[in-house]
Write a structure and sequence with these properties.
Layout lengths: L3 E6 L13 E9 L5 E4 H4 L3 E4 L7 H7 L7 E6 L20 E11 L6 E6 L13 E10 L4 E4 H4 L3 E4 L7 H7 L7 E6 L20 E11 L6 E6 L13 E10 L4 E4 H4 L3 E4 L7 H6 L8 E6 L19 E11 L6 E6 L13 E10 L4 E4 H4 L3 E4 L7 H6 L8 E6 L20 E11 L8 E3 L7 H5 L6 E2 L1 H13 L3 E3 L5 H12 L7 E2 L6 H11 L1
Antiparallel strand pairs: 1-5, 2-3, 2-4, 2-6, 5-6, 7-11, 8-9, 8-10, 8-12, 11-12, 13-17, 14-15, 14-16, 14-18, 17-18, 19-23, 20-21, 20-22, 20-24, 23-24, 25-27, 26-28
Helix pairs in contact: 10-11
Length: 539
């Protein structure tokens, strides 16, 4: 004769219990005391949905549901006076029938409910939170109040990307995402009237269902955002800052806003080399690389509309904010020439280096960031060249001009006057600016341009006869070489300094051997000034 309630399963966690006025969704089996079943929500494949305590249920069930937790199971015995009484339900429930119900509570909410937010992880740094009209990327697991999973972005291995607060989402999610930080994780519980309401979504979500979203925010930006720059290290000395049209070499780590690494120049052990402000890189990077110093480290945060947009690229998802931590190694402009800074110049500086002079000098060679490439000091010997003969890169030929013995200078050489785009494998990176600290130790004056040998005095009028020692009317290479060597040793003549003796003599002989037969005749033999005069006359 009395209502009987047996709690057969009670969940460990019960944050909320049914009160009169609440709306519930539950499954049930209805049977008579002999076990004969008269009704089942399971057979219909849908829960029974109803307000409690408003007379929409038989009195016994109205009472039996009060105090239940979601996922709780109760066995309820309802006497006739609290069920269908002496009349019963024709064809279904006889008069004065005792009813047994096996009840499982699936869902519970109230018309006064609001969105509930439970944050269970929040990063220490939160420079920015989600505001209305922001665009966000987040992962989520969507469940019903009983824990049944109905959707998950993790299963699709793709974030959910959307604007917030402008009606692209259900109202409860629009509210629940506001104020989140990137990296934050929260549980958002949404009553059905702020979700999919009475009808559900027509697929996976039934009508009147409370929804629980476990959300992890990965990304956040606003369409009005520009790039953001955070200076991490700016050198004390910054003589020059990058401008549009400059060519930069820099290292970088590229991450998403949640810290996920998508690319790194360090892993390739090679800088990224590009022009700035010319559209060779994404718009945000073009802007973020302007105004940097060599050696500077900065963080550049780029919204997707200045990055890879809605489509993304490779490991970069669509609509992703990009974070680049860059380190500028060097930069130059294609219009740059050699830069020379003189640190010491002797007071007695009358003889200046010029094209054709033979120079001996020490140097330290480094990159613009200070990385040492080479040093003659470590080898214990000087570097020796003939200036302007192409024995060094063009920038060094230019940088060694007009030096005194004892002078010290720094020569900065842009790559187009150095080793170019290719560099020297294993030694000099491509497109690298080179810095040489130079000290000139010795200078041997060269010969006038175009001459390999000059006389120190008057030239013998019988020069061919003197060279033709056996007087056979022909001069062989051996005779020619022996004669030139004698003139140099006796001080009567001078060879261009810095070149191999045999190569110079052979070159001189080949110039005289006009028919290429390995012999020079008197008719072929001419001095330099004689050649010039004849050519002039012919012209």
């Amino acid at each position: 004769t009395e209502l009987g309630v047996e709690r057969r399963f009670v969940p460990e966690s019960c944050p909320r219990a049914v009160r009169p006025g609440d709306f519930v969704r539950y499954h049930y089996l209805g049977a008579f005391p002999d076990g004969t079943r008269f009704d089942s929500s399971y057979d219909r494949g849908s829960t029974f949905n109803v307000f409690v305590g408003k007379g929409q249920l038989i009195a016994g069930m109205d009472q039996a549901l009060v105090g239940m937790c979601v996922n709780e199971r109760r066995f309820v015995k309802i006497p006739p006076k609290l069920a269908y009484g002496s009349e019963g339900v024709p064809g279904v429930i006889p008069p004065n029938a005792v009813l047994h119900f096996d009840v499982l509570l699936i869902d519970l909410w109230n018309l006064e409910d609001e969105v509930q937010i439970q944050t269970y992880f929040k990063p220490e740094k939160c420079p920015r939170t989600v505001q209305v009209s922001d665009f966000v990327r987040y992962h989520y697991n969507g469940t019903f109040l009983d824990g049944t999973l109905f959707d998950s972005s993790h299963n699709r291995m793709r974030t959910y990307d959307t604007y917030v607060g402008i009606g692209w989402l259900i109202p409860g999610m629009d509210q629940g995402l506001l104020g989140m930080c990137v990296g934050e994780k929260r549980i958002i519980t949404i009553p059905p009237f702020l979700a999919y309401g009475e009808d559900g979504d027509g697929k996976d979500i039934p009508g009147q269902a409370s929804l629980v979203f476990d959300v992890a925010l990965l990304d956040l930006h606003n369409p009005k955002d520009g790039i953001a720059i955070e200076n991490q290290l700016v050198p004390e000395s910054c003589e020059r800052r990058s401008q549009t049209g400059d060519f930069l070499r820099y290292h970088y780590n590229g991450t998403l806003l949640d810290g996920t690494l998508f690319d790194s120049s360090y892993s390739r052990n090679r800088t990224y080399d590009t022009y700035v402000g010319k559209g060779y890189v994404i718009a945000g990077m073009d802007e973020g690389l302007l105004g940097v110093c060599t050696g500077e480290k900065r963080r550049i945060i780029i919204p997707p509309h200045l990055g890879y947009g809605e489509e993304g690229r490779g490991k970069i998802p669509g609509s992703a904010v990009l974070v680049f931590d860059i380190h500028v190694v060097d930069f130059h402009n294609p219009s740059d020439s050699v830069s020379i800074t003189v640190h010491y110049k002797p007071s007695n500086c009358t003889v200046l280096s010029k094209k054709g002079d033979y120079l001996k000098y020490h140097y330290n060679a480094s990159l613009l960031d200070g990385t040492l490439l080479d040093s003659t000091h470590s080898l214990g010997k000087t570097y020796n060249i003939v200036l302007g003969s192409g024995q060094v890169v063009l920038g060094m030929d230019m940088g060694l001009q007009d030096m005194c013995v004892g002078e010290r200078r720094t020569v900065v050489i842009p790559p187009h006057l150095g080793y170019g785009e290719d560099g020297v494998e294993g030694e000099v990176p491509g497109s690298a600016v080179l810095v040489f600290d130079i000290e000139l130790l010795e200078l041997v004056s060269g010969l006038p341009e175009g001459y390999m040998f000059v006389w120190n005095g008057e030239v013998s009028p019988n020069l061919f006869e003197e060279i033709d020692q056996n007087h056979d009317g022909e001069v062989l290479l051996e005779e020619f070489s022996e004669y030139i060597q004698t003139q140099v040793e006796t001080g009567k003549g001078k060879l261009a300094p810095g070149f191999d003796f045999e190569k110079i003599v052979k070159n001189m002989f080949t110039n005289q051997d006009r028919d290429g037969n390995g012999k020079v005749t008197a008719e072929e033999f001419k001095l330099k000034d004689q050649e010039a005069k004849e050519e002039h006359d012919e012209l």
